[in-house]
Amino acid sequence: MAKQSRYYGSGTERALFMLSRGTCYAPPCKEPVLKMAESGTPRVNVQIAHIRALVEGEARYDKNYPEKLRNRFENLILLCKPHHTEVDSDLWVEQYPAEVLLRWKAEVEGGGLGDALKNVPPLNGDKEFEGIIVKSVETARLEILGRSTN
Ligand SMILES: [Zn+2]
Fold this sequence. Notes:
alpha+beta; two-stranded antiparallel sheet; two-stranded antiparallel ribbon; 9% strand; binds zinc ion; nuclease; HNH_nuc; HNH endonuclease; endonuclease
């Protein structure tokens, strides 16, 4: 696999959306993770951000952080575009060390399932668990859209 691959696995993305509580991870930002397009279709309104950079030269690169963990759930958060730009910017990066982003992640995900998922390998073929996450994301989506799930 290419070193710069940004493939996270659909389970990892779903877990982030499910645990985001519906907004950008940066406090106190309330930018929703999904927004309605004019067509009436929800569209993704956040970006996946690395806590420690995937490649050298990018924000918060840590050569001691194992490469195989860099695209894992534990190293990823969801940020709105302005916050993603800000935390990765050369101008601001010193204000946003990995410790700050890890605190945001812990606060948003509230330990619990986030901790439980921390060392779980990428979801490959665990259909039952994946199904639970898909259902949770769908429920959260309907709540965001203000529709009853009943
Ligand atoms: Zn934000």
